[in-house]
Amino acid sequence: MMNMYIIGTISPLNDIDFIKDTVTFELPKDYFDFLKEYGYGNICEVIYFYEPDEQHIKNTFMEYIDELWDWQNEKQKNMVLNGLSIGGTIDGDIICCVNDNLFPYVFLPRHLESILSFENIELLFSYCFSYYGFKELYFDPEFKSVIKMISLIKNSSLDKLLINNIQKLFLEKYKTDKVFDKDSQPKYIIQDIGGWVYMDLVYKNSIRVKYQSMHEAKANEIISFIEEKI
């Protein structure tokens, strides 16, 4: 399995029997290997793995599935309709497992009509990483996660210099463990809160703080520090 920087505390799934019981076909072993190592969460806040849902595709797309994607045949379409939705992307694409021993992973693009099939999870990841241009991988667990959105809009107006000042003061006060996307939309990792502080230097209108609930006191200290500067 791949090597990724881990933010905070992960919650690997040791008991996977309940997932196996959701479908009548055999799910790929490398999917379970991933869950046993990382649990639910996201990769680079772009690819998401959530609790699997065997009804999601059928309930959401059944009525107009022929209009959304091109199918090789009825068998392929029925496999997907009866597949297990296991994740997706920030763009609304869907990742599912289907009853196909050769190509058990199917990627349903939101904005394309051609579906993609993969032999294993590594090839699925390679496609996604190449498409999104990932340079460094990190895993952000869903476990006990809380996200606080802090708006920088005050009295219906936005001071676009404000976020730069807050960023400077924040970095002077707090030690960060790592930073991703430093030059555009920096995500400062703070392992003491099991999360990060994300500063949108593009739109300059918000700051997000993600933490794990067992570190709420430390996270609230950081949130209060930021809000006092607005």
Brief summary:
With 230 residues, the protein is of the alpha+beta class. The chain has helices at residues 17-20, 29-37, 56-61, 65-68, 74-81, 121-132, 162-173, 216-228, and strands at 5-6, 41-43, 47-53, 84-89, 94-97, 105-108, 116-118, 138-141, 145-151, 153-154, 157-158, 178-180, 187-190, 195-199, 206-212. It is built from eight helices and 15 strands.
Q: How would you portray this structure in words?
A:
- This protein is of the alpha+beta class.
- The chain has two domains: 5-138, SMI1/KNR4-like (3-Layer(aba) Sandwich), CATH 3.40.1580; 144-228, TATA-Binding Protein, CATH 3.30.310.
- 30% of the residues lie in helices and 27% in strands.
- It has an eight-stranded mixed sheet with strand order 1-8-2-3-4-5-6-7, covered by helices on one side. Strands 9-15-14-13-12 form a five-stranded antiparallel sheet, with helices on one face. Strands 10-11 form a two-stranded antiparallel ribbon.
- Strand 2 (41-43) and strand 3 (47-53) form a beta hairpin.
Keywords:
230 residues, elongated, alpha+beta, 8 helices, TATA-Binding Protein, 2 domains, eight-stranded mixed sheet, single chain, five-stranded antiparallel sheet, SMI1/KNR4-like
Fraction in helix: 25-40%
The low-confidence parts are none
Secondary structure tally, helices: 8
Sheet bearing the most strands, described? Answer: 8 strands, mixed
**What is the strand arrangement across the widest sheet?**
1-8-2-3-4-5-6-7
